[in-house]
């Protein structure tokens, strides 16, 4: 059996794109145990058994996912969209279960096309089921977001102006490769008018405050783009950026 199939024997990792499993195997010199530990940390830790098995209500799901459970989504989106033009399309990269917050998003920005791109196949299936049942203008795709060509293909079909969400995904990008997030942000900045980055103020498990360590990211954003709003809410630092540099 090949190593990818071996890694996928664990149900929480089964529906990840092969490209991501391959990267994990490369990072761990083909050690299956280490590759699985890495994947759980960045892609599987957020999945509780209830989520994997789909045994959870639509409202409840936002309350059990580790990244979304602290958020009051209406306030969260109100603050994010306070000073920026309402987009026609929103692309949520590494979306987790955010698709389940669509009604709060709609309340704040009005009808909008919502696209979620997420590595975890279980989350993608559940979001698509929810979108279909509620007839929402939304769709989720199971992709590695660092696959820029696929990303461009999906995004180019959506109407402008666009806003891209990058909520709590910088750590996963940096875990692939140091400084990958800078390159990545440069690439996606050509695809949208605005983008929103959130950073957890505490690392998972540890109570260490690590916002100070993000100086490299803030310096980069300040140099290349315009930070419209920078604030803290529900344990996250939130940066709303305009892709144009306003001098
Ligand atoms: C910490 S969670 C944040 C989820 C969501 N953005 C939120 O803030 O509620 C990170 C999510 O990004 C996804 N992710 C990380 N790297 C990814 C990649 N390269 N491609 C697709 N999804 C990715 C993980 O599977 C996970 O669901």
Descriptors for this entry?
alpha/beta, seven-stranded mixed β-sheet, 2 domains, 247 residues, binds S-adenosylmethionine, 7 strands
Could you explain how this protein is built, in words?
- With 247 residues, the chain is an alpha/beta fold.
- The chain folds into two domains: 3-45; 58-242, Vaccinia Virus protein VP39 (Rossmann fold, 3-Layer(aba) Sandwich).
- It has twelve helices and seven strands.
- The protein has helices at 3-7, 18-27, 32-44, 49-52, 58-64, 73-80, 102-109, 121-133, 148-156, 170-176, 180-189, 215-224; strands at 89-93, 113-118, 138-142, 162-167, 194-200, 226-233, 236-242.
- Strands 3-2-1-4-5-7-6 form a seven-stranded mixed beta sheet.
- Helix 2 crosses helix 3 (32-44) and helix 6 packs parallel to helix 7.
- The relative contact order is 0.12.
- The model has no long low-confidence stretch (mean pLDDT 90).
- Bound molecules: S-adenosylmethionine.
- The site of S-adenosylmethionine has 19 residues, from helix 3.
């Amino acid at each position: 059996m090949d190593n990818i199939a071996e890694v996928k024997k664990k149900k929480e990792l089964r529906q990840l794109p092969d490209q991501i499993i391959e990267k994990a195997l490369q990072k761990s010199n083909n050690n299956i145990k280490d590759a699985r530990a890495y994947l759980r940390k960045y892609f599987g830790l957020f999945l509780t058994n209830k989520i994997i098995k789909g045994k959870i209500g639509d409202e409840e799901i936002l309350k059990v996912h580790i990244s979304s459970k602290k958020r009051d989504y209406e306030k969260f989106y109100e603050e994010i969209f306070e000073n920026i033009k309402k987009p026609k399309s929103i692309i949520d990269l590494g979306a987790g279960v955010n698709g389940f917050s669509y009604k709060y998003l709609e309340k704040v920005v009005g009808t909008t096309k919502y696209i979620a791109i997420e590595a975890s196949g279980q989350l993608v299936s559940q979001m698509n089921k929810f979108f279909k049942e509620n007839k929402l203008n939304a769709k989720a795709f199971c992709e590695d977001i660092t696959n820029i060509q696929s990303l461009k293909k999906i995004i180019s079909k959506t109407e402008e102006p666009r806003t891209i969400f990058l909520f709590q995904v910088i750590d996963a990008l940096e875990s692939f490769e140091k400084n990958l997030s800078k390159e990545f942000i440069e690439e996606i900045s050509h695809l949208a008018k605005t983008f929103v980055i959130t950073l957890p103020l505490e690392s998972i498990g540890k109570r260490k405050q690590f916002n100070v360590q993000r100086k490299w990211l803030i310096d980069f954003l300040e140099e290349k783009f315009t930070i419209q709003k920078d604030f803290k809410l529900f344990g996250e630092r939130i940066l709303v950026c305009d892709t144009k540099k306003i001098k």
